[in-house]
Amino acid sequence: MGRKVEQSAEGFLVRETVSAEERQVTPAFPTEDELIAYLAKHGDFWDQAGGKGPWDRVSATLFVRELKELPTMMMIGGQLVRAREIPLALIAQEGGG
User: Fold this and answer.
1) Is the pTM of this model over 0.85?
2) Distances (CA, A) of 54 to 20, 21, 34, 41
3) In the chain, where are the structural domains located?
């Protein structure tokens, strides 16, 4: 449960998967690159509504191209990390810091 990248008839988008009724939380884009650029400039709809701003570009790229799905939050190194911060936290943990 959290966020997942999906390729639909409309293009690449992110859906929230927390509830039984999945919700689209980004517009659809023809390419993964455009979805990454959107997240890195705006964040998803929840980020925008909460005033959290854009995702880090590295996190957006890892999420869209490799991970494809993120939990809402995760414990990493004894810290509670939210979805948009998980890719960088995993990199830091692998690198030892």
Assistant:
1) yes
2) 26, 25, 14, 5
3) 2-69
Q: Tens digits of per-residue pLDDT, 61-94?
A: 999 999 999 999 999 989 999 999 999 998 888 8
**What is the DSSP pairing of strand 23-24 with strand 69-71?**
unpaired
Tokens, residue 63: 């999420």
> What are the beta bridge partners of residue 14?
5
If 0-12 CB within 10 Å is exposed, 13-18 middle and 19+ buried, where does residue 34 land?
middle
Q: Which of 94, 76, 36 has the alpha carbon at shortest distance from 85?
A: 76
Give the Å distances, CA to CA, from 79 to 4, 20, 90. Answer: 22, 27, 12
